[in-house]
## 1
Amino acid sequence: MESLEKSREYVLALFRIVVGLMFACHGAATLFDVLGGPHGAKPEIAAWPGWWAAAIQLVGGGLVLFGAATRPAALVCSGSMAYAYFVEHQSDALFPIENGGEAAAMFCWSFLLIAALGPGRWSLDPVVRLGRRTGNRPVATR
């Protein structure tokens, strides 16, 4: 069990990378008709909610993938999937297996987990945080 605890940050990072990549691929497929194209009709530019959902998928998934603004991006992605589940799927049946909302439910909970636990290793968050902390001010040296 100790070896599992030592690898926790790496496993979390791999989870973040895979979930972010899959989510970004959904957005790219919908917006740019690649990777098998959109599931359903391609939305018009800025059409609610389809185009905006795909934009959140592409941008939010990319941010989570690279670990940049990971927690806020994951929270927005989680919320967008909660919206998708309750607005688009829940009215058809109670359980995700019945209403076709498995992907929305899994993405929602996956992103909530990432938002709660953080990015793990191999993330751009510490680099961005360090740059923000020093800003353009010179760093004092002795």
## 2
Amino acid sequence: MTERGALRVRLDQVWREVAKFGAVGAVGTLVNFGVFNLVRHVTDLHVVRASVVATVVAIAFNYVGFRYFTYRDRDKTGRTKELTLFLLFSAVGLVIENGVLYAATYWFGWDGRLQANFFKFLGMGIATLFRFWSYRTWVFKALPARETVAHAESFLEKEQEKEEEKEKPGEKPVVR
């Protein structure tokens, strides 16, 4: 495989990962907004507290989706460490997400239903970028064997290309 082909394969893998992450995240977003608006409607919790409750429910949902759908082919050893890191980075995402909502609500006084949903959505978007990077980098690590196999395959393909170059078109190949 050429360097260009290897890059294309790598970009295709990243694209599929982003799509799977996005699918789980989209459903998690619906869970988050559904719980957020339900809690705001049936309780007297303040907007940020209702958002924190909704975010925690969505985090639990997302872990299951990421582990068993998006990153199901990743290393499954060390689940305790994986879950600990997931919760740590999710907590940072929770602070980012709800920090935006807090600032909009308590610093700027934008606390209407539509405004709360907008700033919750904005905070979720910023937190999602952080979560994607941290989950794929630290939590759901790629198996080292996959990288080794890919490197070995590219090496073998380069060797094959060298052999094919030696056998010019129109010339008879050397039989060994």
## 3
Amino acid sequence: MTTTIARDTQTRAAAKTTPVTGIVVGASRVVISFLFGFHGLQGFGFFGGIDGQGGGVPFGSFPGWWGSLLELVGAVLLFAGLASRPAAILLSGVMAYAYFTVHAPMGLLPLQNMGEPAAVYAWVFLLFAAIGPGRFAVDNLIKRRR
């Protein structure tokens, strides 16, 4: 009985996956990681910096400088689709940490504490960790060569 239920669940899950699904997931991963990379660069003073005046976080400071470094490296890895699941888990954790330590003390809801981008990114990266990189990923090339 349980084997039948498990097989039926797998059949339904497989039926929902189409060739377009991998393309959409892959394209979403590329676009989201590209946009997220700019957040990491802001910590280093690019694109107006953290203060809108081009200021970056002090070198080596925690959590600002290290968070910016993790955001940038993670975004590059996710963009390429290289070690995408570990990178996505790491980025989800970075954004959850940012939300709870920086934004949540200012208010309960993300719209009140300006933490909506951090919350959304945390959940999107968790989704990529769960479903994988989709198409156009270096991970897929490595898997095929094995």
## 4
Amino acid sequence: MLRGKARRGQGGDGHGDVGDPLDAAQERRVRAVLALGGVPQADLPDGVQQVRLRLLERAADGREAPRDVSAWAAVVASNLAMDWHRAKRRQERLGERLASLRQPEHAPSGEDTSLLSLAVAQGLDELPDAQRQVLVLRFYADLPVRSIAEELGIPEGTVKSRLHTAVRALRARLHEDEVV
């Protein structure tokens, strides 16, 4: 069903070529929804590609094509715009957290900040994979413990334990190197 719609919308030849699942009008609508949703102009092509990909994945999974591809694509584009804003807010919060960590009572020099960054990176490299993974997801990706547990398929208690152990090891490493 999707293949037929895609071919009709793009002039496919009917010989196994799926073609573009979005016609020109649908693509314009997706771009408009993304733009009105606050996605920057530079990110619009990626958003359109994401909608195309989801439509193609739907067909590849054997699911029936949406009854109204244009409406479905607009809803997906709206969800992508919300995801973009969530990611932007996460990045801003992470930036604020990192900035607050870098601005103690006495502002460190650029050299001190570089030394701290290097020491943290080296400390992360020395952690076991499981500990490094939860530490990065919690403090760099700003995911809550519950989300980390769900994504990794492990109990929340295991996430908390790994976080505690990783933070303790990283703190010890930084004190050992006399960075903090």
